[in-house]
Amino acid sequence: MPAEAWAVPFAVGKCSYPVRRDPRKPQSRGDMAGQGSGRIDDTLLVRDAQRGNRAAFEELVRHYDQAVLRLAMHLTGSEHEAQDVYQEAFLKAYKSIANFRFECSFYTWIYRIVTNLCLDHLRKRQVRKEDAPVATDASGEQYDVLDQVPDGRAGANPERDLMRRELGKRIGHALEKLTPRERMVFELKHYHGLKLRTVGEVLNTTEETAKNTLFRATQKLRGALADMR
Amino acid sequence: MKCEWVKENILLYVYNELPDDARYELEAHLARCSDCAVELDTTRKFHAVLSELPVEEPSPNLVTAARMRLQEGLETAEQDRFWHRLIFEPAAWLRQVRFAPALAAAIFIVGFAGGIGTTYKFLNSISGINPVASSAAPAESSITGIQSITQDPGSNHISIKYNTVSTQEAQGSLNDQRIQQLLLFAASNNYNSGVRMDSVDLLTQEPNNTHVREALIYALRYDSNPGVRLKALDGLGASVKSDARVRNALLEALVQDSNPGVRTEALHLLEPVRADSSVRSVLEKLAHSDQNQYIQSQARTVLSQLPEFD
Question: Is B151 exposed, middle or buried (0-12, 13-18, 19+ CB in 10 A)?
């Protein structure tokens, strides 16, 4: 444990678990792990969850679930589908947590589950050959997810808002044209800020392969969005 | 070449994935190469364009709804138990074997013991097949019995099966010291009269050997089987003239043997030495008062053939 790290104990059931926070690591929009609170030492929680402690598992879920939803939403473009991925991923993690051998971080392990489910999702979508990322909301109505791209800046002028929305749509379509794996690598690297080494670990491949896939994806996107540069 | 390398790595530079030395080299090149500086600018702009598609934070409502749904799911979900993993994921089970060092030690011990066992068996089987190759003669104390003795017809080759802790077999000619040793052992110690008979029969081929002669005398005196005693007599007959011990043994047999056939044969074999005083006195005694009339008459016949001494 580094000298500058500090621990905050918080109660889960009868036990308390230290949260390790690395102050050297800046929080960024792309920081996936630990809901932006830095890398958390999950070892105690994982061990308790492996012994069947559900409270410990739910605590683990709370460490990662917002990041999982964020990734799933960006990839699927749908809250509903993101929720399905979330549910399936954590249930799968709960069932097989006893098999987790600490060969990688829990963070990598859970993202491996999530990305596999998302890859399945992307492949199914490719088979369906949907023209537009149309999704169904909770009430069953279909909508174009790219229309949902929000404008984070309140009071922005409508013309700029429209342009941004158009731009978002075009980027979305360009991303749709990537292979599921290229899309996943680009997503994890560009939108979620993971290091290529971590991307490789999550996708069960090498850093070099992840790097080459990122190059390929960027080239394709450049080709598709050539007029926007 | 340098520009090519920069173009290949400029994306990694933008994503902050270049190692420090490569980063320094790239920055140094960018400072003096306008083409590459333009390329960097383009890449950065494109990077910014792609970032126009924002990554939405999940709304608190969505997070809460997802958590509640998961909690419901966890109520009914069951974690994989040990037996489940054992049956469905043997590979995972093997991976988690924590007692690998103990297992390795156990395998080593079993392997070592197996190796010793196999070697022992192998050596045993070798000595069982061809003990002739072994130069060491079997110690008498280790021989528990002779199983069989056979002579190849028309040859000098003898095969003897004898028991030590386990049955063994020795082969060789009658001149072979070990074979002789085994034959002598068989003649005097074996429980099987057939084997004794065979060994005595073979020993009679070497009547001039002192050890053989002793063994034959021993057989004549003490063997319980009259056939064996008869065979021993035959073997000794030739040396009755030259060896006083043989003569005495024959006389002993003539007087004391329980079998009339043996006695008769001894009587005939003693004919060449009938003139010896000891033989004559025995013959006179037999001629006078032997219970067996045939022996009596035969003794008389032999005595009558003796030259008269005045």
Answer: middle
